[in-house]
Amino acid sequence: MTENNNLEKLVGLSKEKGLKLTPQRMVIFRILSECNQHVTVDQVYQKASAEYPMLSPATVYRNMEQMVDAGLLTRLDLGGSSMRYDTNLEEHHHFVCTECGKVSDLYLEDIQYKMDANRSQLGKAKINSLDLHLQGTCGECV
Amino acid sequence: MTENNNLEKLVGLSKEKGLKLTPQRMVIFRILSECNQHVTVDQVYQKASAEYPMLSPATVYRNMEQMVDAGLLTRLDLGGSSMRYDTNLEEHHHFVCTECGKVSDLYLEDIQYKMDANRSQLGKAKINSLDLHLQGTCGECV
DNA sequence: TGAGCAAATGCAAATGATTCTTATCTAGGT
DNA sequence: ACCTAGATAAGAATCATTTGCATTTGCTCA
Ligand SMILES: [Mn+2]
Ligand SMILES: [Mn+2]
Ligand SMILES: [Zn+2]
Ligand SMILES: [Zn+2]
Fold it and tell me: Percentage of chain B surpassing pLDDT 70?
């Protein structure tokens, strides 16, 4: 299944990056490959510590950051109180439901182009990242 | 001048909203009408406490939030460590320079329209706020 | 004008996410 | 089996923001 592939991919990539395969890292990897995308550190920590009680939150924080550095995850600032991490590495944007908190992916191919048209306002500034914060009520919460 | 107009407007509106004209509130109003937009609470607190030394940070936090509730300010989450507050109430977006931290306003009239075209992905979800998060290097930092 | 009351304030302690410190441990190579 | 760089647990530290509470103060109305 997809989960196993994801897990194997994570293990493989982490080996490449020189990350040691510690049991706590394995638990985190597995949780990530089973979880939905857009998790918070705390969500991962809760699940992981259930099966590995002596796990420290700092370890999860550290591991998630390392994975971002290694390119296995993307860090998302969706405006909430805590950061989220995305296993979907494709270029995309997000919609956050203010009722239930659900995060939906959005693929907006022409936003970049649209921006270019308005770039004049920025003079010689160079845009490095463009990301859209959409909030509202999702289909189930309407 | 513009500053005085802004100050008068703030005083007038706050009266309408039933906010008492305390000296600390007056200082905060004046600072806001003189400062550039996109200030942090701390920036306001620094300036304000210079002329009103017994001022408490909590008071500034509370006042800024009240002004947001009263529609005199907009709260901006620009991704930095602290919130920013905008005295510009027009619909607009922001570009943040990652070098110097400068925040520039951007007016993108057709983003909304462009979004509508892509709304299909969201099903019956209702978008309440759309805001664009742009980062890069500003004209002076290139 | 002044009493009364809700609103506002200052202070300090609480919060919550994240990071840092430090002593201890261990995975993986030799 | 042994060594060592890297990893961990535990908890202290940080930092922005919020909150509880005792006290003060604008403002309204008699
Ligand atoms: Mn995503
Ligand atoms: Mn602005
Ligand atoms: Zn929802
Ligand atoms: Zn700059």
Answer: 90
